[in-house]
Specification:
Blueprint lengths: L7 H20 L5 E2 L1 H4 L1 E7 L8 H11 L2 H5 L2 E2 L5 E5 L4 H12 L3 E8 L1 H29 L6 H30 L2 E2 L1 H30 L6 H33 L5 H20 L1 H9 L11 H11 L1
Parallel strand pairs: 1-6
Antiparallel strand pairs: 2-4, 2-5, 3-4
Helix pairs in contact: 1-7, 3-5, 6-7, 6-8, 7-8, 7-10, 7-11, 8-9, 8-10, 9-10, 9-11, 10-11
């Protein structure tokens, strides 16, 4: 049996290094690029006319000629040769000028605006959604493991693992924002909430197996019990994650377009969530519990009855 718990510092170190690099990227200018739904402004989608082609350079030159050099640097290439353009908020005359210029080089697929007020509400609602989900998960896991010593620790370790997953996703999108001008949109928040649900499900599976092993006295040390639980759930977790990742990858490769951000965030989040549920949450629980867990095991109803039976 592989000693996962014995390698816990290596697992934690890998995550710490990656997240530290991501935080540095997030802190420096040009990291995560908020989309129009979070900042407000104008957006347009343009593609080639039927039987023609449209090059990125042509779109960039058109925007630069109009004085939108920043928008030219942030062009996103969509599927089937379409391009997504985002600019600051424009007046009616500026909007018409932009529309006319774009119609001169291709076919406009979409053209609209979002005010800064609505964008601010979107940011606030997204933060509230993630915060409420985290609190609900903490309370639920604490309640679900109420028969265990220190059940709050189980919920706290699960939340730390979720924060780890979200930070990994943000780090990847920070790198993509720098390299490919990717932006985050409401679909990104949807993906993050899906990742939270997926990750906590995997974490609960591991914790539940740990509870079963403690109840039947499968080993004498807490670290050994955690290692046994990880070994017992490893195959299930990896197989489930692999099939889900393959499905998400197929969506990203063959659908793309407007859900590209969602698919990529979900792809990264599932991998990070699988890693954190196996090698972060459980390892943090071992570090937190330490050697102080044995005296409190008598409070577990099942173990208490087993101990009483042995004495009789």
């Amino acid at each position: 049996m592989f000693d996962f718990v014995g390698k816990k510092r290596w697992f934690l170190l890998v995550s710490a290094i990656f997240i530290a690099a991501g935080i540095v990227s997030l802190a420096l200018p040009g990291g995560v690029r908020p989309g129009i739904d979070f900042e407000g402004g104008m957006s347009a989608t343009i593609g080639p006319r039927e039987g023609e082609s449209l090059e990125r350079e042509t779109v960039e030159e058109t925007l630069i000629d109009l004085g939108y050099s920043e928008a030219a640097r942030r062009i996103q290439e969509l599927s089937e040769g379409d391009f997504f353009i985002r600019t600051r908020e424009l007046g009616a005359e500026e909007q018409q000028e932009l529309r006319d210029a774009l119609e001169g080089i291709g076919e406009i697929r979409g053209f609209g605006s979002i005010s800064a007020v609505i964008a601010g509400e979107t940011v606030r609602n997204a933060g509230i959604a993630v915060g409420v989900a985290a609190i609900a998960i903490l309370l639920y896991i604490t309640w679900a493991f109420r028969s265990m010593p220190n059940p709050f620790r189980y919920g706290t370790c699960a939340i730390i693992a979720l924060i780890h997953d979200i930070l990994v996703v943000l780090a990847i999108f920070s790198f993509l924002g720098r390299a490919l001008n990717w932006e985050i949109d409401p679909m990104f928040i949807t993906a993050c909430l899906a990742v939270i649900g997926y990750s906590v499900n995997n974490t609960i599976v591991v914790f539940d197996r740990l509870r079963e092993n403690i109840a039947r006295g499968a080993a004498t040390g807490f670290g050994t019990l955690v290692n046994l639980s990880l070994t017992g759930t490893l195959g299930r977790s990896l197989n489930t994650s692999a099939t889900t990742v393959l499905a998400v990858l197929a969506v990203y490769l063959f659908v793309g377009g407007s859900i590209r951000t969602f698919a990529m965030a979900l792809f990264v989040g599932i991998i990070a969530g699988t890693y954190s549920s196996l090698f972060i949450a459980s390892e943090l629980l071992v570090l937190w519990e330490g050697l102080r867990w044995r005296p409190s095991l008598a409070r577990v109803p099942v173990i208490g009855r087993l101990s009483a039976g042995r004495r009789r």
